[in-house]
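Lecture 7 notes: from sequence to structure.
We start with the chain below.
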Amino acid sequence: MYPFSKILLAIIFTCITFQIFAAEEKSGISASSLSLFPILMYDSDIGFGFGGKGMIKNHFKSEESFDLILFASSKGEQWYMFNFSIPDKELRQGTTYSLALDIKIEFDKILKSNFFGFGNDSEDNEYQFPREHTRLELFLGRAFTKHFILENGFTILYSSVYDFENVNPIMSANIPGSGEALTSYLTYRLILDTRKSQIHPHRGWKMSFNFDLANEILGGDFDFQRYRLELNKYQELPVKNHILAARLWIQNIEGTAPYYEQSMIGGTWTGRGFKKDRFIDRAFILSSLEYRFPLYKRLGGVLFVDSGRVMPGIKQATFKDWNNDWGLGLRYYLKNFLVRFDTGFSDEGNRIFFHFGHVF
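Predicted structure tokens for the same chain:
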């Protein structure tokens, strides 16, 4: 009964927050819009959390957006994130534009992070140690048509992984990314996107090919190339606002990348029935299917399945020994973003996750 009591408690927290604390303000057709959401939640990886998220759009009448998250949890996570976009990503969806700018600044400190070793057959463990990330992302993009976009970006990531020597016998100074490290890489991204909305797509598809190039010349400590293909499909069913969403992600890394930048399955964005970063290797194949449906006013539900596998390289891909999970969740739709609560089940137990935005 212990895991289910956690799920029940998390649902109560989530529903209270959804129905009482969510706030929005708007005025006029093209005036600025503000969405606020105080956070009170439970997550299996980070414990009980509190904080807030706010987004304001078009305040300066330039279709810009400012997005801020301030968060802390009982397991010692501190998460601060600031995003600036001009034009805002949702406002520019399905339009042509000559230039778009996206800036992200993020600090994430986790006192109880995980490392399970490399490979799809790595064993579960309870070893945990502190990890800090400070990330700066700068992206420039152009939409040549309503559906064809090119983006170029630069990322700097400073990480500190420490106090693992007497805690985790699997982690060592020889693992790429242990200790203090700086990762710098360029990103080239080609996107074909027929969706009308990024916040809540009802129909259409998105194909994205990402190429990341890390090199010591850029000021970092690692040299690697990362290739990633994302295929997402959205289909509205005959019943209004009932949607099937599917994804297939394939990733491969060449060179030496820190372990936290390699291909990972587990956690709120990938395998929702497993611990965060449960499976790590150079390559992965990941698939998911979601059935999204309305519940009451802005509140919606979702049923999902995830299935994926990591491997030393994409040439070693196989359909054997995939890691499977299933689950259900709640979605709360604000004007400027979506609030997400999921609980996932796998042969390693159940997990509870709280975050923002659809998983895909």
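Points to note: Residues 1-9, 11-22 have pLDDT under 50 and may be disordered. The two ends are 31 Å apart (CA to CA).
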